[in-house]
Amino acid sequence: MKIKNVSEEDLDDWRESHVAYAIRECLQKVHDAQKQACLEAYWSRNPWEDWRVEALKYQSVTIGEIFEATKEDMMAVMEQIDAEPIGMDAD
User: Fold this and answer.
1) Res 84 pLDDT > 70
2) pLDDT in tens, 13-51
3) Is residue 53 exposed (0-12), middle (13-18) or buried (19+ Cβ within 10 Å)?
4) How many CB atoms lie within 10 A of CB 66?
5) How far apart are alpha carbons 45 and 41 in whole angstroms?
6) Most exposed: 3, 61, 80, 89, by fewest CB within 10 Å?
7) Distance CA 29, CA 24 (A)
């Protein structure tokens, strides 16, 4: 199913489903464990590389956006992905 065929009501129903809740809880637990590991590494004077810390911050934002994005937000992201594949430089 394409995102353009999904209504805001469909998104709301999905967000309120047990499956979406379980997925969000799982993602959040993984993120929390990684955040704890990052903090422990910092306090043991063996901090993570900057790119790993930035990825952890991005992960936090992404988890929230997945479950709070509007249909228009999702369509904009899909258009961006279609226009310029991630990790590929346009020549």
Assistant:
1) no
2) 888 899 999 999 999 999 999 999 999 999 999 999 999
3) middle
4) 14
5) 6
6) 89
7) 9
Q: What is the 3-state secondary structure (H, E, C) of the chain?
A: CCHHHCCHHHHHHHHCCHHHHHHHHHHHHHHHHHHHHHHHHHHCCCCCCHHHHHHHHHHHHHHHHHHHCCHHHHHHHHHHHHHCCCCCCCC
For 76, the token pair is 């904009």
Which tokens go with 53? Answer: 């810390």
Q: What is the pLDDT of residue 90?
A: 47
Answer for the pair 67, 15: CB distance below 8 angstroms, yes or no: yes
CB atoms within 10 A of CB 28: 14
Provide the percentage of residues in the chain whose pLDDT is more than 90.
Answer: 44
pLDDT of residue 22: 94
